[in-house]
Write a structure and sequence with these properties.
- Helix content is 6%, strand content 47%.
- With 264 residues, it is mainly β.
- It has two domains: 138 residues, Jelly Rolls (Sandwich); 90 residues, Jelly Rolls (Sandwich), CATH 2.60.120.
- Strands 2-3-4-11-6-9-12 form a seven-stranded antiparallel sheet, with no helix packed on it. The protein has a six-stranded antiparallel sheet with strand order 1-19-16-21-14-13, with no helix packed on it. A four-stranded antiparallel sheet has the order 5-10-7-8, with no helix packed on it.
- A hairpin with a 2-residue loop joins strand 7 and strand 8.
- The radius of gyration is 20 Å and the shape is globular.
- The termini are far apart.
- 39% of the residues are buried.
């Protein structure tokens, strides 16, 4: 019976949908993101360890004028923050550094940091930590909680990097500027325009759609993601990403952890 049952089992597995046989590519609708609060700001976690992420996270924040995302420290994770709309100050102790829409902040592990929304409008930001900081989502790093101790960490002049992403069509962070755990890219895609990317075995990639929509293809199938959705990929995978037909211009933030040599 064993010999006759084995081919049946193999045949059954072969007929399973690709999404059940291998979950290397997953579309995560923004509607499935979950909230967490730090200081005055309630953010949404989109990609996180509960989904199996081991190399990266992705969080989305809308912060009202004057609201503070509490100062904190990631003991072993680098933090990358992009601002899409409005302006904010990066706070480190008593110092404030203004950054605006189109800017990116890279805060290495161990550096104290938080944000305070500046100006008169909301600030819209995303952030990703590499590797994931499991403590962040518990609220234990919230230094604005009643009775909480100030964050213990470093404020090292020049350690936090301030860069632009909006005028780039390619990578804006890389090992060359000190980001060894992750590389972030800004992709501008016209309808049907494509780029190819590889995720090595053990690596992870996230494609966050800020504007428009994308079509992602690998050897198992095709996947579509719309505005504020994310595509989460665990390697190995070879992908073709294209701007969806009908979208005037698609803007995608590509998060590659760890960086892959040779991609631009």
């Amino acid at each position: 019976m064993f010999r006759s049952a084995l081919p049946l089992c193999i045949a059954a597995v072969a007929t399973l949908p690709a999404t059940l046989r291998a979950q290397s590519v997953r579309v995560i609708p923004f509607s499935e993101s979950t909230p967490f609060t730090m200081g005055d700001v309630t953010s949404r976690r989109i990609v996180h360890p509960d989904l199996g992420a081991k190399m990266t996270t992705l969080n989305y924040s809308v912060s009202k004028p004057g609201a503070e995302f509490a100062q904190h420290v990631h003991d072993g994770s680098d933090d990358t923050i992009l601002i899409f709309q409005g302006e904010a100050n990066l706070r480190q102790g008593d110092s404030l550094h203004l950054f605006r829409a189109g800017d990116v902040v890279f805060a290495p592990a161990g550096q104290i940091h938080g944000t305070v929304t500046a100006g008169t409008g909301e600030a819209i930001m995303i952030s990703f930590q590499n590797p994931p900081d499991l403590v962040l989502y518990t609220g234990a790093r919230d230094s604005k909680k009643t009775g909480a101790a100030p964050p213990k960490g470093l404020v090292t002049p020049g350690a936090v990097k301030y860069l632009r992403f909006d005028d780039k069509n390619g990578y804006f962070t890389s090992p060359a500027m000190g980001s060894n755990r992750v590389a972030g890219a800004h992709r501008k895609l016209k309808p049907a325009e494509t780029f190819k990317t590889t995720v090595k075995a053990g690596g992870e990639q996230v494609l966050f759609v800020w504007k428009g929509a994308i079509q992602v293809k690998d050897k198992t199938g095709s996947y579509r993601a719309g505005e504020k959705d994310a595509v989460f990929i665990q390697g190995p995978a070879d992908l073709t990403v294209s701007g969806a037909p009908g979208a005037a211009e698609t803007r995608v933030i590509q998060i590659q952890a760890p960086p892959v040599a040779g991609e631009k």
